[in-house]
UniProtKB/TrEMBL annotation:
Residues 91-170 form the Cyclic nucleotide-binding domain. The chain crosses the membrane at residues 6-22, 27-45, 51-74. InterPro entries: cNMP-bd_dom, cNMP-bd_dom_sf, RmlC-like_jellyroll. The keyword Transmembrane applies. SUPFAM superfamilies: cAMP-binding domain-like. PROSITE patterns: CNMP_BINDING_3. Keywords: Membrane, Transmembrane, Transmembrane helix. This is Cyclic nucleotide-binding domain-containing protein. Gene3D superfamilies: Jelly Rolls (2.60.120.10).
Length: 232
């Protein structure tokens, strides 16, 4: 065996593949396997005559590996996102870029032509909203509250069902996205990591609402009640 020309290529490939199997990062593992298999291909191709069967078989393996490497890179990068998607992604930091793409491609974006009511207190909705606006109004039990965005609206109904406990109004010119909750639930149930990432994002969103929501024009001598934003 050691008398064969270019046999060192086989051993270089073997070392690279061994190191690949020792790392835990999937992208690095696949890159090292692809390069290691490339050395195998070079060895078989340089034989006299070339061992074409092995060249073709290993080329197929490299092609499959490179395809998956491309998928992993897309999962981890913001390449090919539109400017609007890049801006929205800043608010979805608990999601990977790939998870964000799966969610955002199911969204329908709208610019409010006037003050628009998205949720009505006491009514059901089959929509989840993401409000890409600096502020919006929440109306609960006859009192108006100013809330800061970006924020979600309807996430508790997405997770637990029931009705909206408050009315949500976005101002004219506000940009918002909406999803069908049934479609979004199916997407979440198909991927536990995605479901966990969205749950974490909703948790941050609820905490931000509690911290930033303030009453507008509270009645004189009557303290404004705390807004139960967790049910918006």
């Amino acid at each position: 065996m050691f008398d064969q020309p270019f046999v060192f290529l086989i051993f270089i490939g073997l070392v690279l593949k061994c190191f690949g199997y020792m790392v835990r990062d999937e992208l690095l593992l696949r890159c090292m396997l692809a390069v290691g298999t490339g050395f195998d291909i070079a060895f078989y191709a340089l034989q006299s005559p070339a061992i074409l069967g092995s060249v073709m078989a290993n080329s197929v393996l490299v092609s499959v590996n490179l395809t998956i490497i491309g998928v992993i890179v897309m999962e981890r990068s913001t390449w090919f996102m539109t400017e609007k998607e890049r801006i929205a992604f800043e608010y979805f930091k608990t999601l990977s870029p790939g998870q964000f793409r799966r969610i955002i491609r199911r969204a329908r974006w709208t610019v409010a032509g006037e003050d628009t009511v998205l949720l009505h207190e006491g009514q059901r909705t089959d929509k989840l909203f993401f409000l890409e606006t600096k502020s919006f109004t929440v109306k609960k039990r006859g009192l108006n509250y100013a809330a800061q965005g970006p924020a979600f609206a309807g996430e508790i109904m997405l997770l637990q069902g029931g009705v909206a406990s408050a009315t949500v109004i976005v101002p004219k010119g506000a940009v918002y996205a909406e999803w069908c909750t049934a479609d979004l639930r199916r997407t979440m149930h198909r991927s536990r990591p995605l479901e966990n990432a969205l749950m974490a994002r909703f948790g941050h969103d609820l905490a931000d609402k509690v911290r930033n929501s303030v009453p507008l024009r509270p009645q004189a001598d009557t303290p404004a009640p705390m807004l139960n934003v967790g049910q918006v």
